[in-house]
Amino acid sequence: MKVLTFVLVLVGLAAALPSGPVNPDITGAQVFRVNPTSAAHLHYLYGLFMQDLYDFWTEPRAVGKNVDIMAQRWMVPVLKATLSKVGIEHTVIIRDLAEMTERSKIANDRALEVAKRTNPNPKHNMDWTAYHRLDDIYGYMDYLATTYSDIAQVESYGKTFEGRDMKMLKLSKGGSGKPIVFIDGGIHAREWISTATVSYMMSQMVENSGSHAFLDKVDFYFLPTINPDGYEFSHTNNRYWRKTRSATGSPFGCKGVDPNRNWDFHWDEVGTSNEPCSDIYSGSKAFSEVEMRNVRDQLNKYADKIKVYLTFHAFSQLWMYPWGYTSALPADWKDLDNLAFDAVEALTSVYGTLYEIGSSTNTIYAAAGGSDDWGKGVAGIKYTYTVELRDTGNYGFLLPPSQITPTGKETLEGVKVVGEFVAKTYG
Ligand code: 0X9
Ligand code: ZN
To answer: Are residue 261 and residue 311 in the same domain, yes or no?
Structure first.
């Protein structure tokens, strides 16, 4: 059986090579929802998670919390047999992932087309009724910098592995030098709502800067996608791509590193893999990824001014703070918890969307090498948060474009509380 599994995995890996047609590796793939009803189940699922045979869309977190597992075609019967053997009940929530992905692509392409046709501003292509490609996002950032040149500035802070620009917008009213809220998105390529939400908040703050009083005392830096190669690849080749696109030297041709396992703070200690084909591959060394080095350099450059660092992910609706490498809490965790609570309260008040708050190890699982831990542990930024946006697994990564604006609106309310807090405390 072990040999058979090994052969199946090899066949799977070969078929998953990223050079084929769009979404080459999801034909016949299914997504299973399982519910661990005992500590033994949870333990078993965690073991399965660490084996890297499946793509866990949500990880084993606690007894009674659903776990969604994507199995590629050749692994579907293996997963079914495995779960049955240990008596873990499952339901298939996506019977044909390829078809579902195609449908969601058609819906987004249609939304993009409508957006283009009805665009009220010929100077850019951006809106929040569809998930846009990198060019539209960068075009919009440039437009903001030109149109609002007194308060907004765009900088290219480096190049990606594949040679794309990495762009950041600095919003600063009445001169720079104020305390900073540093916001990034898209570290994980497939988490499109993260990139869309960061660009939504950037848009609202720049274009309506007059209605945000805290901007007199606080600067905001926006980096809507810090993994541009991965983001583009998730649009063109594989909707479920998570990592960067760097060469790894893998004999199977597997590319990319999990950028949120690549930061040099307790690097590779827990919740990571040394297998380049894994979605949680930590890299050959800390900061092996040029994109993460570029972001690190920006965080370092402004470290004494950055009061809050927010990094947006999806999905699960969680507002988390360090640590991710240990279940121990930072000494000042209460301060981080209080601010998270206030932000989430404002977020929830918009549409009733519920979020959980806590340290990332205690809320989801231990995973070292994250940007949030590095921000606090090395750059010395007191308030660092990882926010997992909508939803809780209904649509997962395929969150419909119609939810971009509502997600943006509610998240903005949370971030406004953060801005007000920084203005009051450090302004
Ligand atoms: O595992 C991650 O990198 C994040 N979850 S996701 O499903 N978006 O991949 C959570 C990161 C939490 N922070 C740390 N572990 N440091
Ligand atoms: Zn993520």
So the answer is: yes
